[in-house]
């Protein structure tokens, strides 16, 4: 059979194209015909890119604080042992002064670390409020587009059909609109701002 110039190359390219992975199709959701929709807020926060980033950052800060607590505990244990050894070498008055100073140091460090733990907990709550504020307009669009009049937390509903749950739909749209949420400065209501700053881990 007579071959035309380039025919073999064309066939090869056609074959390669047919074997190449196709881009994943966009997730398609069926229309919802219900005046009431439900939403799993924990799943929304846990599975959106935005929520995952906030949780990852909180986890990193929490782990760093826990590691610092372990380091302090080890250092204080060593210092306490050294202080016990000094008891044999100094007078009772000198030892009492050293022991009192050590106790004050321990109390101060504990108070500092407790304050950082409390600040970290406030940060977690603030992150959740920031997330809710950013996704609320998107959830409102979903309600409006669906022709619904209400969006309920699924924990407040005794019984409902899966067809009115828009959690997956909301996750897909939030990811498409906000991504991981890092492109826009995260702000909170003025009354929240004093609690937003977490002390550095020392």
From TrEMBL:
Ranges in coiled-coil conformation: none
What are the record keywords, sorted?
A: Signal
Keyword Signal recorded: yes
- Mind telling me which Gene3D superfamilies this protein's record contains? Skp domain
Protein name listed in UniProt = Periplasmic chaperone for outer membrane proteins Skp
**Which InterPro entries would you find in this protein's record?**
Chaperone_Skp (IPR005632), Skp_dom_sf (IPR024930)
Q: Which residue ranges does the record annotate as region Disordered?
A: 180-202
Source organism (scientific name): Aliiruegeria lutimaris
The taxonomy runs: Bacteria, Pseudomonadati, Pseudomonadota, Alphaproteobacteria, Rhodobacterales
What GO MF terms are annotated?
unfolded protein binding
The question of whether Signal is a record keyword is answered with yes
Which region is the signal sequence?
1-26
Q: Name one Pfam family in it.
A: OmpH
Q: Highest taxon of the source?
A: Bacteria
């Amino acid at each position: 059979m007579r071959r035309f110039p380039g025919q073999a190359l064309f066939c090869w390219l056609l074959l390669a194209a047919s074997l190449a992975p196709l881009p994943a199709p966009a997730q398609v959701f069926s229309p919802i015909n219900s005046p009431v929709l439900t939403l799993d807020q924990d799943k929304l926060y846990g599975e959106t890119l935005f929520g995952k980033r906030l949780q990852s950052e909180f986890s990193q800060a929490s782990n760093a604080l826990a590691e610092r607590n372990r380091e302090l505990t080890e250092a204080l244990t060593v210092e306490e042992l050294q202080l016990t050894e000094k008891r044999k070498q100094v007078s009772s008055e000198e030892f009492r002064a050293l022991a009192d100073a050590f106790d004050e140091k321990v109390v101060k460090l504990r108070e500092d670390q407790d304050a950082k733990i409390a600040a970290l907990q406030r940060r977690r709550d603030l992150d959740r409020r920031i997330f809710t504020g950013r996704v609320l307009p998107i959830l409102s669009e979903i309600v409006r587009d669906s022709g619904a009049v209400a969006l309920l937390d699924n924990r407040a509903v005794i019984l409902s059909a899966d067809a009115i749950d828009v959690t997956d739909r909301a996750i897909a749209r939030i990811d498409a609109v906000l991504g991981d949420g890092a492109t826009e400065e995260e702000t909170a209501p003025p009354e929240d701002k004093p609690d937003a700053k977490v002390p550095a881990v020392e």
